[in-house]
């Protein structure tokens, strides 16, 4: 199974649950609480991912990275940004030096 299919299924599941009953869906509950809460959860997951990386616990890092990606997709969905847009941006950057790409960004 291709990993891109996993992300596509995740995105579709998150989209389908955004308007569900907040009592029965974590995604719906986050959306009901608003963009600030979704962003806060993404930040928490990013911090937990960094901590897991620093303590060199591979399995913890894998789990936290999955949580981080999940919450990122929830945030993107809340902002009506499809993963395809993010993938297109990554494709655009492919083969470009990271230093050159960063220098070309508007300040």
From TrEMBL:
Location(s) in or outside the cell? Cytoplasm
- Has keyword Amino-acid biosynthesis? yes
Q: Which UniProt keywords apply?
A: Amino-acid biosynthesis, ATP-binding, Cytoplasm, Histidine biosynthesis, Hydrolase, Nucleotide-binding
Entry's EC annotation:
3.6.1.31
Provide the GO MF annotations for this entry: ATP binding; phosphoribosyl-ATP diphosphatase activity
The stretch of residues making up the signal peptide is: none
Tell me the Pfam families matching this sequence.
PRA-PH
Its main subcellular localisation, reduced to a broad class, is: cytoplasm
Principal EC category: hydrolase
The record's annotation in NCBIfam families points to: histidine_hisI (TIGR03188), PRK00400.1-3 (NF001611), PRK00400.1-5 (NF001613)
Please report the name of this protein according to its UniProt entry.
Phosphoribosyl-ATP pyrophosphatase
């Amino acid at each position: 199974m291709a990993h891109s299919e996993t992300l596509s299924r995740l995105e579709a599941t998150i989209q389908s649950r955004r308007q569900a009953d907040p009592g029965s869906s974590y995604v719906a509950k986050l959306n009901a609480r608003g963009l600030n809460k979704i962003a806060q959860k993404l930040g928490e997951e990013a911090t937990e991912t960094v901590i897991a990386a620093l303590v060199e616990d591979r399995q913890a890092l894998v789990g936290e990275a999955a949580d981080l990606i999940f919450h990122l997709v929830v945030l993107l969905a809340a902002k009506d940004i499809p993963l395809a847009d993010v993938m297109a941006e990554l494709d655009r950057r492919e083969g470009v030096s990271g230093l050159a790409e960063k220098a070309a960004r508007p300040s």
